[in-house]
Amino acid sequence: MTCCNLLENAIEREVFYFGPQHRIDDGRIVNEVSTEYFIRAAASRGYDYWGVNYCPFCGRALSLGLWQAEKKK
Ligand SMILES: [Zn+2]
């Protein structure tokens, strides 16, 4: 389900979140990117989640919507 070992590692260490947005119940989503991948950081209350479209490590498209859009090109 992940593009590279670094991302898998980041999810294991919970600095990265993979899953549906509505399952996030311990923090808030900072930006409005339609994705299932989020960078997770401790905030003053709970966690902040930054949605990302691309893997920060290998640069591959992550989000389903973007992946489908790229496939059509
Ligand atoms: Zn990657």
Q: What would you note in describing this structure?
A:
This protein is α+β, with helices and mostly antiparallel strands and 73 residues long. The protein contains 2 helices and 4 strands. A 4-stranded mixed beta sheet has the order 1-3-4-2. A hairpin with a 4-residue loop joins strand 3 (37-42) and strand 4. The mean pLDDT is 92. The chain binds zinc ion (ZN). Zinc ion is lined by residues 3-4, 7, 55, 57-58, 60. Residues 3-4, 7, 55, 57-58, 60 line the site of zinc ion.
In summary, what is this structure?
Helices cover 23% and strands 23% of the residues. The protein has 73 residues and is of the alpha+beta class. It has one domain.
What characteristics describe this protein?
73 residues; alpha+beta; four-stranded mixed sheet; 23% helix; globular; binds zinc ion
Biggest pleated sheet:
4 strands, mixed
Strand order of the largest sheet: 1-3-4-2
Shape: globular
Total strands: the figure is: 4
**Which molecules are bound besides the chains?**
zinc ion
Q: What is the H-and-E element order?
A: HEEEEH
Helical content band: 10-25%
Count of domains: 1
Average pLDDT figure: 92
Tally of individual helices: 2
Q: What low-confidence regions span 5 or more consecutive residues with pLDDT below 50?
A: none
Strand content: 15-25%
Distance between the termini: 22 Å
Structural class: alpha+beta
- State Rg: 12 Å
Which helices and strands appear, and what pairs or packs with what?
Elements (H helix, E strand, L loop, with lengths): L4 H8 L3 E3 L8 E3 L7 E6 L4 E5 L12 H9 L1
Parallel strand pairs: 2-4
Antiparallel strand pairs: 1-3, 3-4
Bound molecules: zinc ion.
